[in-house]
Each structure stands twice: as structure tokens, then as C-alpha cells.
Amino acid sequence: MIWTLIIGDRTYSSWSLRGWLLFAAFDIPVQVQQHPMYSPELKGALQGLSSGSMLVPQMVSGGHAVWDTLAMAETLAEAHPHMWPADPVARARARSMVAELHSGFTALRGTCGMNLRHVYDGFEVTDAVQRDLDRLAVLWADADGWLFGGYSIADVFFAPVATRIVTYGLPVSDAMRAYVQKHLEHLPMRQWRAQGLAESFVQPGYDLDLPTRDWPGQRIAARAVALGTPINQTCPYSGKPVRANSLAEIDGRIIGFCNTFCRDKSVADAGAWPLLQPLLV
């Protein structure tokens, strides 16, 4: 069964991120339909689905929609049980943590909306947000790399929380920051953010009037260019011919792509794309 996943803005939609990671982080095939949040295009994509819901994400196959990320996770785990920890006690704890996040942490989620475009300086943490951070410290206390050893649905659900800690410079312990760093280095997470930057869409009302600095992590030097002779004739992702308006200079090499989106996601994080790497050696 091949699912179609309907999502909103990659930069801002935390629940869309969770839905996508349920597929991408476990190598489950999916066809993605992305539309800006609150747009007529997204409304049109959701109208008529069997769910009757106008929220994202939703996964659809054969006219049958599954909505809400908890239901999506359990539906996919029926066919891919390795998405949960194998140990029954760990699996029960992971499910409890996911359910608590799904229904709680309202101060953190409401005050610190996901925004993968910025890292802010000077954000003031409220008492309510601090209480949520204190609870996170308890839940993440036993993390050894990922929360339950190998990557699981629990990590999927906490991925947007990890990005919030980065975006707003939230005060956390060194152990918590090490878990956040696992998410920042996670290839599907890097690919999601790079695609969000390539969308080049700023959702009104999501940016704060605070000083900003660069997103953490080393990046390969890359920029879009208008002129140059590419070292490749076909796009590393699609295999389609390179287009003259889709060139980038990456690590000193002129590389061509089949469209500007492929170019821009590569410029955003060239190291996140295995198919691009042969052109960089």
C-alpha cells in the first residue's frame, strides 16, 4: 500500500513534520502533497476526504484517510512493528510519552511555535514554559542517544520539541541538549528543514521581533548562481536534464538541477542529500 501524505508548511507545521517522519525515518514509501497552511490549495486538497477534517497531516490510500498523528503512527506500526520499541515495558513507556506530548505541553507548544527559519536571542521563558521543560527533563532522563536506543515513534513526536529548544534558545541541561543534537543531525530532519527553506515561504505572524543568528551545525558552502557550466548533465535527484535557471555553486563546483526547488534544497543543506554526494567528491 502506497500512502499519499498531505502536509502544510515544512517550516512551521510541527504536526506535518511528525507525519512525514513516520514515513521518512522508517523508509516507508509515500507520495507527499505539500500546500501552504491556511491556503485555498490546502483546503481544496482536504475537502472531500473521508475524514471530514481540515487539519494536516492526513494520509490517504484508496479514498481512505487516516488523520491525527497518533492514529497514523499506530496504523503504520501495524505493518511496521519495529517503529515501536521491541521490549513490552519500553513500548508501553514510549506510548505513554507520545500520548502525554500529544495532549499536553500546551505552554511550550503555544508559546514557542515551530519555526525552522530562525534561532532567536533574548526570548524570555515564562513559568509555564519552564514547567514544561522540567517535565521534558524527566521524560528524556534515560535517553541514550535516542529515547529507547533505536529511533522510534517516540522520537518522531519529540522532534518538533527539539527544534523549539533550538529556535528559542530554551534553557535545558547538557543531557537534554545532547538529545536535541541527535535530532539536528538526523538526516530526515535535515532534509525536511532544507525543503522548508527551499519553499521560500514566510507564514505571516510566525516570526518574532527578536535578534536572530544562524541555525547550528556545519554546512557545505553553497549558493544559487545564474551563470556557469555545470559538471553534470542530469539532476542528481530526478535524472531529468539540467535547466539553465537551476544552477548552484556547491563546495566550489557548479552543479545543475532540473528545477529551482531541487537547487534550493541542496543549497540549504548540501550534506543532507546522499544522491548529491557523488558530485561533491
Automatic annotation (TrEMBL):
Query: Which CDD domains does the UniProt record give?
Result: GST_C_3
State the Gene Ontology terms under molecular function.
transferase activity
Q: Do you know which InterPro entries this protein is assigned to?
A: Glutathione-S-Trfase_C_sf, Thioredoxin-like_sf
Q: What broad taxonomic lineage does this protein's source fall under?
A: Bacteria, Pseudomonadati, Pseudomonadota, Alphaproteobacteria, Rhodobacterales
What Gene3D superfamilies is this protein classified in? 1.20.1050.10
Please report the name of this protein according to its UniProt entry: Glutathione S-transferase
Q: Which domain of life is it from?
A: Bacteria
Keyword list, A-Z: Transferase
